[in-house]
Amino acid sequence: MGKRAEQAKKRKRQNNGKPVAVVVAEPLTPAESTDSLLLPEEIEAAILVMRTLAENPELLADKEMKDVKRGVYDLHKVLVEGATLGSSLTSRITAALKDYRFTDALVLLFEMYTRRMPPKLGALQRWVRECDATSGADGSPGDPEALRCLDMILRIANMGEAGNADLPGESSDARDHVRKVRVWRARTRGEDHPDEVAIWDRMQNKTLFGPAGTEAQKPYPGFRVANFVRGADRRPPNVYDSTVWTSEPGTIRLTPAASRRAPTKVPVPGVPGAFQVLDVFTPDECLQIIQAASAHGFERDQAAEGSALMKTSILARNFLWLADTHFLDHFYSQIVPFVPASAPVHGGVGGGKVRGINGRFRVYEYTENQLYRPHIDGAWPAAGLHPETGEYMHDSQPADDPLWSRYTLLVYLNSDIPEDTGCTTFFLPSNEMGVMDATSVRPIQGSVLCFPHGDTQGSLLHEGSAVGANGGKLVIRTDLLYEARGFGQFKPATAGATQASQD
């Protein structure tokens, strides 16, 4: 039996004894193609050929393999540099991460690090999103290779703050790349509000609106629809429609000043720029917000196309609320003594004065095992209603007085969450390259977690960690707004977008 016959016999054994037909097809022209340029059987045959050559490299010495080697080289070049993405270092990193080629991405990221080339904010957010290093429902770290890339991305973004570091190790254990520092709580349970309301427990027992069986008023008094977008018209397209509700002044009854605790600020240890303001809202105010959201219903959120379909996060349901000016003024007055008076300045950009709170609230409902992958928040404009027509506006500010967000605000509406779950977890580079320190902030009802975003340097990588068994987390995501005119351009989210980062 000749050499080629032996090789054919070997291929037959590798395919469970089933003969494989090698199809040689003429290239399809655009006019001849229907749904795809390649038929499934052609793809299957190509995969078989590549696997056979990888297992039998001596075949590549044959003269007839010359064109095959050229074709494989061209394909490899496209995979490494990214099809239609250009050949810049930033584009090559994006292409590698998108294809889950984390080792290639790490090499390119290290080159960027050694050349001291900070990325733009958009690239930084895109890289973090493509890593998709979602933690497990049990709190275990995500993909170890993705975590190594995340660590290097953070070091590139904050090169001015990086200390001496060793080269990355070769461990494949994700636990070696994330070091859990602590689950931090801003105060002890004994110091919690004496009138704290177990809102999640009420939701499960169907006593949210009163005694068991009490039905909610629909629509909830004082609320009306401000904007509605069908799923296909959302940007990016979504499986589900989106409704923005707005409230009339006084709809949420505010607790009198004499009956409420004074807010206090507590910095988050080891997380630069992050702090928690306690007692911004009373338990009753938190309850009213969830009553309104539950009466109208939390909407589902699922991308209809694009790379988001491949991500591991299970998006929380949400209620979009354009808060009224009366409520916003109260919120702002509660926290303004504690927030930075001016936006951070990096590279000569920033410094605008603080002006208010974004009225577009995303009220999220996380249930058991739901989490949101590590991400970096982007800047948002000031949403509102047109002063004359009442139309909902993604950016309601005049062109000569733009306001863009520079800090994330997370309002925790409930504390009855299974112990040490449902936290907001921050990831920061440690003093050892390849390893990140993780600090988890425990939600406290009525408190607000504040941290910087909207710039390459200083923006914090964080995730909405999984909620424990039978539990739920209720949280509002909004933003602190600063003057943008004359202080640099911080690109807001795409006009008309309804999907935001979740925490």
UniProtKB/TrEMBL annotation:
Gene Ontology MF, one: iron ion binding
InterPro entries assigned: Oxoglu/Fe-dep_dioxygenase_dom (IPR005123), P4HA-like (IPR045054), Pro_4_hyd_alph (IPR006620)
Needed cofactors: L-ascorbate
Domain of life: Eukaryota
Domain Fe2OG dioxygenase: 356-483
Entry keyword set: Dioxygenase, Iron, Metal-binding, Oxidoreductase
UniProt KW Nucleotide-binding keyword: no
Gene Ontology CC annotation, any one: endoplasmic reticulum
PROSITE patterns: FE2OG_OXY
PANTHER family the UniProt entry points to: FE2OG DIOXYGENASE DOMAIN-CONTAINING PROTEIN, PROLYL 4-HYDROXYLASE ALPHA SUBUNIT
Listed name of the protein: Fe2OG dioxygenase domain-containing protein
Organism per entry: Apiotrichum porosum
